[in-house]
Amino acid sequence: MKFFDTHCHIHEAQYELVGDDGVRxxxxxxxxxxxxxxxxxxxxxxxxxxxxxGTTAADSQLAVGFAQPRSNIWASVxxxxxxxxxxxxxxxxxxxxxxxxxxxQKIVAIGECGLDYYYTHSPKAEQERLLRFQLGLAQKHKLPxxxxxxxxxxxxxxxFDEYKGLSGVxxxxxxxxxxxxxALDRGLYIGLNGxxxxxxxxxxxxxxxxxxxxxxxxxxxxPFLTPAPERGKICQPKHVVVTARFLSKLRGDSLGSLANASxxxxxxxxxxxx
Length: 274
Ligand SMILES: [Zn+2]
Description:
By secondary structure, the protein is an alpha/beta fold. The protein has twelve helices and eight strands.
């Protein structure tokens, strides 16, 4: 049985608290666990690899550097909508980011990028500009997208639809069957994580149960969103198995078929040999 974590931030566990994006302080609180120890533990539980996801230009560089020497790790380069204000008028940083996306080895996706109206840490117009910039890069380099869309699908789809030929995953999917249909209609994959194990929203569970097996991806978003019953511990890639066990019961799939299908899906979307 093979599992794959399509979305984590473990590369940040090894760095100091400089230019923190909220992830590093979380790792620090947990005593800065060694990312390679986490990967060893994950492997023992059947997790064959992970994608380290960048959230800023600098963090994306770190994710790429972390992935390069490790055979079972890949990187996604992206600028999170929270960080839009920080980056959108910084031409040099955006240029560096573009160069990284063009030349960095082991980059398998652009993201996480999208719109976040739940927190709206950056103004909507700036989030949109940054999203368009990254949709354009994905199109140019023929890379799939790791999309972060929270309370913003109505604005998101018309923008997304302007760019043809895109593929990707709606990561940390917590919307309803309506948004699920909209994503599936566009050929997108659906990333499910620990939230499903502790949500009290029956509509989220209904949507999670309705994701076709050939469109489902597993993820942790480590260090965040530790699945139940492990709540209170720091989230790491091995926890993808805990979420998978929950989803297999919810959906009525065997754990083996859920594991293998989601791993095949990840390999297909991101072009990996797993
Ligand atoms: Zn994330």
